[in-house]
Design a protein that fits this description.
With 419 residues, the protein is α/β, with parallel strands linked by helices. It contains 14 helices and 17 strands. 33% of the residues lie in helices and 24% in strands. A hairpin with a 2-residue loop joins strand 2 and strand 3. Helix 11 crosses helix 12 and helix 12 packs across helix 14.
Length: 419
Amino acid sequence: MTYDILIRNSTILPMTSGTSGVLEKGYIRIKDGVIEKVGQGTPAESSANAEVVIDASSKIVMPGLVNCHTHLPMSMFRGLADDLPLDVWLNEHIFPAEAEHVNPESVKRFSEHSVNEMLLSGTTCCCDGYFLEQSVAEAVIESGIRAVLGHGVIDFPAPGVPDPAENVDAAVKFAGDLAGRFSRVHPSIFCHSPYTCSEKTLVKAKQAADEPGILFQIHAAETERENEWVGGNTDRSVVAYLDRIGVLDEKTLLVHSVWVDDADLKIIRDRGCPVAHCAQSNMKLASGIAPVPAMLAAGITIGMGTDGCASNNNHDLFEEMDTAAKLHKCANSDPCVTSAETVVKMATIEGAKALGIADITGSLEEGKRADIILVDTERPHLVPAYNPFSLIAYAARGSDVTDVIVDGIIRVKDSALQP
């Protein structure tokens, strides 16, 4: 049998529960976009059986990173309004800028820019939510990245949806048009937040997502004052409010979840909701510190997100891993929480679980799609390499990624995007 790609002589981080943490001198065979074999030692087949052979003797080979929360077009606002609180940042700067500058052409252009940034830094899958998402989809499809894309829903006139009464209908149409057309791209519905969407809108949007069984995304409990901003909310918390109106379940991705207490965590756990943790965005906007160690202890699935470049300034998930690991150690006065391996899991297999696509990506397992990255360990700041997980979480950068494979296709080679 011949194979499309053979990766050999590598240190492999499979990120699977059924495999030891690290495979030394391992190999991976890829056929028709699928991981056909992950093994250790010398493959039985000759290199002549593969169309492309990658010698990864100085590389760490691992699953492509999964960015669980992005606003891809918002790279057009990178650095526009830094050092401001969330409400001022949104209402006085971002929303007006979106009204003036967001159109199908700008959305596609800057989505392309963001996707290229992610591919070059090792992200092979992202979960996006924005307006004019059909233009985002065009950029994503052309790029080759894997994605979950959610059309934005908000109870105000928005780009592409000037009449708020049509907000959910527009999201439903987007999801229907995209469904089943591309194996790499999955539709979703994204409600901006409980304070920009009414209870009626939230319920309608969640029901619309439930009908085809797609992901429902929402910013939730991001700031301390959010409960005050939710119109008509008589509950003690945003999470309790969302639970009462019936929009929480295993297909509801809660983004941020900073201001949650033990009772909220019980609701999140009992409903099976995954969480997208955006440590750097939360820090930059001074939103607070999500209780990630408590979430992990409760058995809540946590993925990692960069958020948009307007509130983080880059899409580098390596930076996000490093920040998340250190932030929670400091906040909890415990150097043992959020270990290196924990944050690498959050950026790979746990992120895929959060998006509901762990059967496709997030780990290097036979039968899964070949979403793989190679990290060069010969860079000065990555020498010596005592522990691969520590190396990835605390020392590596997105710029250390040399090769990226998505769906069995080489998208980055020798640190350069491939046509």
